[in-house]
Write a structure and sequence with these properties.
The protein is built from two helices and nine strands; from the N terminus they run αβββββαββββ. By secondary structure, it is an alpha+beta fold. The strands form two sheets. Strands 2-3-9-5-7 form a five-stranded antiparallel beta sheet, with no helix packed on it. It has a four-stranded antiparallel beta sheet with strand order 1-4-8-6, with no helix packed on it.
């Protein structure tokens, strides 16, 4: 009989210890799930215009300005080119400040000067930018976007002011 009581008490002690250890495990798990440093953050944006360089084609130097708006999702470029062979080159830095990887889906231009009707409005200037579509940025990683505006060879040199806006479209990469 004493053996049965000892066995029963031993089982009760083991069950109590199991319940206490499970409680401690659930507390540790709950603390890890609510830890704010583990929350997923998605933040890829234009950080700064790293460099603006000019190529002077005539007597007057081209001018250029830039501004980042909409929480780093848009960048406004304002440039003035006067003569043939003038060129403005922007080097723009894009960085993933989030905790999730980010894929650059597209860089939208506004107005879209690749459209024939709008292209005529800035003719003979052409604007181009490097292809970074599809680039995957891990947290903390950066990529450079190069934008070039060139005044092509023309018999008539007219001072042209061009306002250009680029919008960044990103998403988490598909697995």
């Amino acid at each position: 009989m004493k053996k049965m009581i000892r066995l029963r008490n031993s089982i009760i002690i083991i069950l109590c210890l199991t319940i206490i250890l499970m409680g401690i495990g659930f507390i540790v798990l709950a603390m890890q799930l609510t830890n704010p440093s583990k929350n997923a953050i998605f933040d890829t944006s234009f950080i700064k215009v790293k460099d603006i360089s000019y190529v002077k084609g005539g007597k007057v130097s081209p001018t250029a300005k830039s501004s980042i708006t909409n929480r780093g999702k848009e960048i406004n470029l304002d440039m003035t080119l006067s003569t043939s062979y003038d060129q403005v080159l922007y080097t723009i830095l894009i960085r993933n400040d989030g905790t999730l990887p980010s894929e650059i889906i597209d860089v939208k231009a506004n107005p879209d000067y690749s459209n024939d009707i709008l292209k005529e409005s800035i003719d003979p200037i052409t604007i181009s930018y490097s292809d970074i579509v599809g680039k995957i940025l891990n947290p903390g990683e950066e990529v450079e976007l190069k934008v070039s505006a060139t005044y092509n060879e023309s018999s008539v040199n007219i001072k042209k002011n061009v306002k250009y806006q680029l919008s960044l479209i990103t998403a988490t990469p598909e697995e």
